[in-house]
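EI: anyone free to look at a 351-residue chain?
SC: sure, send it
EI:
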Amino acid sequence: MQELIEHNDELENYFRNTIIPQLFVDGQLKLQKYTPPAMKQFSLSASDLGRPISDIQDNFRFPSIIDNIQQVIESNEILEKEIQTTDLRWYQMNIIPYVKMRDHKTDGVIITFVEITMRIKDLKEQEKLIADHEILLDTISHDIKNPLANLVLAIELFKGVSPKDEKEFNSLLKIVDSALTKMHKLIKELTEVRKDEYKYKSEEELLNFEHILEDVRLTLSDNIIAANATITSEINISEITFSRRKLRTIIYNLINNAIKFRAAERQPEIVVTTGKEDDFIVISVKDNGIGIDESKFGAIFSKYYRIENAIEGSGIGLYLVKEIVSNAGGKILVKSQFDKGTEFQVYLKAE
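SC: here you go
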């Protein structure tokens, strides 16, 4: 009895002092314990203890909690899920089976909630900054460099002209020539710095693909919910050596496009797979959207190209993906049937 009292005191002390919202629901789906943060977050009180979870499910502000609990009890497997409450805050919900040591049977679940609102916000801001930075650098290094090169060539031609006031003309020409040459050199240096430091030689590391996919799902969570899209995955290759930022940008843009170009008459279904083919790791993103006409396969990777002008976007996403993949020594292929769906296959060199 004394040992039971001590163990119970330890458990009660833990539940009183933890800062994480936690619930203990028994095998009959009755609420047995909760931590103080859960009481505040879900408007629980002592009178709720012992009540069926179905009587108080509205307190939790998401309708599938009972189904999720039953799924864990039946499968004896941990369930991880991102949920959003009515105040638009996001939580990582983990439902863990409670296994009795005596007979090793699941007799309830422990549910924990970790707030991830700021993480999702940060991921979204990072993707926006990356896209804005890429667009700015591409504009400077490509759109401005070529006109400047033409101006430098024109000045070279002017040097052969003999104006009336040769002394003044040559003096001004030298100034303009010097300024434009410096600007041209600056743009060239900026392009090389971008290739060598910012984009093409960013730090590579051993990544877990599931973690990258999870980051993208969180970043696009609002879009996924609004479109009622489902994302499933078949990860045959988990580890990949690549730049974290670049890989996330590739997956983000491909999934974001799959959501954008969904078919109005069917629920969006997106399947992400990874595998190995020769010396490449192949990442596939397949959807059941509106599809792409074969005549546009080449154009879709051009900068600022828009498949559908009625759909919001900058036309930079696939261009960035193609440039990242190409400069990493890989390739990207597209398969599509009009009004049936599209599959993008990204080939990255396996280390």
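EI: The two ends are 60 Å apart (CA to CA).
SC: 👍
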